[in-house]
Amino acid sequence: MQSAENIVRESSNNSPFMSKIREEFGDRLLAEQATCDGIPTLWVERQHLKDMLRYLKEKSAPHFEMLFDITAIDERLRVHREGQPASEFTVVYHLMSFSSNCDARVKVPLQDADLILPSVIELWPSANWYERETWDMFGIRFDGHPHLYRILLPPTWEGHPLRKEHPARATEMEPFSLSDEKGDYEQEALKFNPDDWGMQRQSESSEFMFLNMGPNHPSVHGAFRIALQLDGEVIVDAVPDIGYHHRGAEKMGERQTWHSFIPYTDRIDYLGGVVNNLPYVMAVEQMAGIEVPERAKVIRVMLSEMFRICSHLLFYGTFAQDVGQLSPIFYMFIERERIFNIIESICGARMHPGWFRIGGVAQDLPNGWEKRVADILDFMPPRMDEYDKMVMNNGILKRRTQGIGVYTKEEAFDWALTGSGLRAAGFEWDYRKERPYSGYENFDFDVPIAINGDVYDRCAVRVEEIRQSLRIIKQCLDNMPSGHYKSDHPLTTPPRKERSQQDIETLINHFLSVSWGPVIPPNEVTVAIEATKGVNSYYLVSDGSTTSYRTRIRTPTFAHLQMIPKMSRGFMMPDLVAIVAGIDFVMADVDR
Question: Residue 364 in contact with residue 496, Cβ under 8 Å?
Fold first, then answer.
């Protein structure tokens, strides 16, 4: 019997999935677009959008439990759109099926003079922030959205930055100045007004208090604000306010060359290091048809797992600190620094090495790398056992976190939760296992899960993931393939340095590859990985140039933070601190 995964990856003309879609929607289906990632891509008019999405969620085989992403494309300057309906702005819905382990895209064409779509929050509550972001960045309105306000940019911002006419650099705009009057105006605009969010100021028995938690508060892990509605000490409602760390990463991805954007990816989840490089370079490689050597794949896996451990250690220490245990963070920072020393000896840098390249990695492993990697495998396991006694078995920590912020697997699907948070709700699903990439199918490791879906379980899952990462690193050490660290494909960027030292022609070619980068054939691709905090993906659109036409960065914690109100209602302020700590986020990953 043919698997559901194969159904959606074969030719759309022959797949039973597409045959059923044609049967159900007939001439309501505008087009079927072929992309190099094999994801079925369906075009529909906006009046049929909700019918299509409801069908895919509830009735189709496979059915798609999660709305993974919503974004848009400004098509007005795009040249290569063969086989696609006329569109000036295209809204893209990315759906995931966990039951059948496959994806689907739904696209809606719009004209600049009529940028309106129906909201789909009633189907997936996670659509709330994604629709707000699409409005913020492109100016596309969603009818029926309860709070269509800016989400990443200040409320006073003029224009929509991901439109092609919006400047990409500060040098394209007038010099910035901030008068006293303008400063007062900006500050006034940031004030939280409960009436805007439909919040009552009092109940029949009491008057509510409104409190800002953040944006400068140690337990919100960055510049992040939660506007709280309190009845005494009990949380009635909460409004997460993000965007203070927004740097326009997607806009940068459309102005840099394919190669020169790699260091920018490091700064998305700035605790994830080269893990951020991986989905981006794999997406470019897929569009270019580059086959990565086995040695490069294993090196990528080894460095990614080192950074996963570093990220989880920081979470582990700050998690304990947030619920009142100060000592663990000092011990865990020491272990993290020891691993960074090893990473530095391999990559030449610590937190942001930007070390992965299109076609492989920047350079081969240095002499003596085996001894340094073996050190991790010696000192980490006994430390993890000590931390179990210190943190996970601590009675006070258990009482602060068990039964707090509980959600089910189905609620996780509704809110687009992925990674450790999804596995803590009892769902055994890891991208490295279910959709192996970079050779993960060759590694033996387990997928830790828990059953309660509370704050404590979310920490416990990450702790066990550190041990599984150590297992993977041990296999990399024992089974490192020989061969090249980078592909010989002509679009590999930059080519291996030894190829630049033969004659003037090869030096010129190397110079052009570094400065201009490769010309990637016109196509679209989504590549996702199991990042440190959940599923991270890059959706890239090439128009046959040396730069990306559209760079979409879907980060896990953007979706995770919008579930804070649901998790925190009815709890007290100290419980909210534990809930926020258990999410594991950094604002650079949220805001991009």
Answer: no
The pLDDT confidence band at residue 190, using thresholds 50, 70 and 90, is: confident
The amino acid occupying position 563 is M
Rounded CA-CA distance 551/253 in Å is 6
As a whole number of angstroms, the distance between CA 227 and CA 225 comes to 6
d(CA 319, CA 403): 16
H or E element: which one contains 30? strand 29-33
Which secondary structure element, helix H or strand E, spans residue 559, and what is its range? helix 556-561
Tell me which H or E stretch contains 515.
Answer: helix 504-515
Distance CA 555, CA 535 (A): 7
Whole-angstrom distance, CA of residue 339 vs CA of residue 270: 16
The tokens of 269 are what?
């989840």
Cβ partners under 8 Å of residue 28, min gap 6 = 44, 45, 48, 51, 52
* Dist CA 110 CA 89 (whole Å): 5
Give the mean pLDDT of the chain.
Answer: 89
> 474 to each of 192, 305, 402, 445, how far by Cα in Å?
51, 11, 33, 11
Q: Say if residues 534 and 418 touch (Cβ distance below 8 Å).
A: yes
Candidates 453, 426, 396; CA nearest to 583 is 453
> DSSP string covering 421-474, please?
HHHTTT----HHHHS--TTGGG--------SS-SHHHHHHHHHHHHHHHHHHHH
Local structure of 518: helix, strand or coil = coil
The maximal CA–CA distance of the chain, rounded, in angstroms, is: 84
| H-helix or E-strand spanning residue 375 | helix 369-387
- Among residues 338, 423, 418, the alpha carbon closest in space to that of 375 is found at 338
Yes or no: say if 265 and 548 are a contact pair by the CB < 8 Å rule: no
Give how far Cα 139 sits from Cα of 166, 211, 248, 366, 487, Å: 12, 31, 16, 50, 41
Strands (E), 189-284: 209-213, 225-231, 234-241
- Residue-wise pLDDT tens digits, 156-165: 888 899 999 9
Adjacent-strand bridge partners of 31: 43
- Rounded percentage of the chain residues whose pLDDT exceeds 90: 51
Residue ranges of alpha helices (H) inside 70-213 are: 127-138, 180-189
283, 359 in Cβ contact below 8 A? no
The pair of structure tokens assigned to 398 is: 């258990």
Q: Phi and psi (nearest 5°) for 527? A: -130, 130
Q: Of the candidates 490, 518, 102, 526, which has an alpha carbon nearest to the alpha carbon of residue 283?
A: 526
**CA distances, 114 to each of 50, 117, 139 (Å):** 18, 9, 10
This prediction's pTM: 0.91
Non-local CB neighbours of 6 within 8 Å, separated by 6+ positions? none
Query: How confident is the model over 247-280, as pLDDT tens digits?
Result: 889 999 999 999 989 999 998 988 888 999 999 9
CB 460 within 8 A of CB 392: yes
- Amino acid making up residue 483: G
Please enumerate in sequence order all residues whose Cβ is within 8 A of that of 12, keeping only pairs 6 or more positions apart, or say none: 18, 32, 34, 40
Rounded distance between C-alpha atoms, residue 418 and residue 461, angstroms: 13
User: Which two tokens mark 289?
Assistant: 């048809």
The DSSP call for residue 485 is S
Q: Tokens 């559209």 appear where?
A: 550
Measured distance CA(56)–CA(40) in Å, rounded: 12
β-sheet with 548-554: strand ranges across: 523-531, 534-542, 548-554
Which strands form 29-33's sheet, in the order they lie side by side?
A: 29-33, 41-44, 102-110, 89-97, 66-74
